[in-house]
Amino acid sequence: MSQDFFNKNNGELIYGNNPGSNSGGDWWYDLMPNIYFYQLYDLYPNLGGDEDFQFTTVADRFAESVRAMGGSDAPWQQADMNHRAWSFLQMQPNDNGVKEPEAAGAYAWVLYNAWKETGEPEYLKAAEWSMEFLNGLTSNPSYELQLPYGVYMAAKMNAEINTNYDLEKMVNWTFDKGPLRGWGSIVGTWGGFDVDGVIGEANDGGNDYAFQMNGLQQAATLAPMVRYDKRFAKAIGKWMLNLANATRLFYPAICPVLCRTPRLGRMRMTPTG
């Protein structure tokens, strides 16, 4: 049933947030379902449907769109991915509203994994054009969830194909608030409980909030990231301890017993931890 979210009949030929949905409104909703499909494809390679066609078609569409955003190998040129979203049907950008350049990380994650699975050189080139755009940014592009996937992929590509992406800069971006949205790691106490480490709106204006799954998703990318760059192991481990402590607050039935640990403190993501 998960494959119903692959939008074939309307010509999008990618996974969407809903069956029959159209791309071009918000990159978060257009790209993340494809990451989740790739994860399912890896865990369950025999889904009993059209998954092989969908896997390569998603990669083809992503690579095509990166080229349409300016990615080129003659001459070599990174893509310009400073958009709110991208219409895969029209192959045109949406620049209305808050832009989501962190989407370059989601692109790189999908395309690099597609290259690892198939060996198709076009996927690797498009992954590099996406990551080069992300690496070249001088301002925090964080919007919500796609950036940690790019951080993981930057570490993996540095280790496997000898790229030189600025991992320290990107890791810190995933925790610090950027100019696009007050999104990052919460630091402090809510109602007397330590919430250091949860991920969400960190506005410092009394209206902060966090999502459980955003913390879990960021952990799922940054914990395995350290296998490719051990400089960050201590810092990520400390954050994971904070996150695990605070995540228990999402389960109030067990919190009277479990939520009594002391405050673990704040850290900065540096190569020395």
- Principal-axis shape: globular
Question: Unreliable stretches, pLDDT < 50, 5 or more residues?
Answer: 261-273
- Structural class category: mainly alpha
| Fraction of residues in helix | 40-55%
Q: So how many helices? A: 9
Portion in strands: 5-15%
- Helix-strand sequence: HHEEEEHHHHEEEEEHHH
Give, in spatial order, the strands making up the sheet with the most strands.
Answer: 5-8-9
pLDDT averaged over residues: 91
**How many strands, which pairing sense, and closed or not: the largest β-sheet?**
3 strands, antiparallel
Span between N and C termini? 43 Å
Structural Rg: 19 Å
Count the beta strands.
Answer: 9
List keywords for this structure.
273 residues, mainly alpha, two-stranded antiparallel ribbon, 9 strands, disordered C terminus
Structure description:
The strands form four sheets. This protein has a three-stranded antiparallel β-sheet. It has a two-stranded antiparallel sheet with strand order 1-2. The protein has a two-stranded antiparallel sheet with strand order 3-4. Helix 3 crosses helix 5. The chain has a domain of 136 residues. The protein contains nine helices and nine strands. The protein is mainly alpha-helical and 273 residues long. The radius of gyration is 19 Å and the shape is globular. Strand 3 and strand 4 form a beta hairpin.
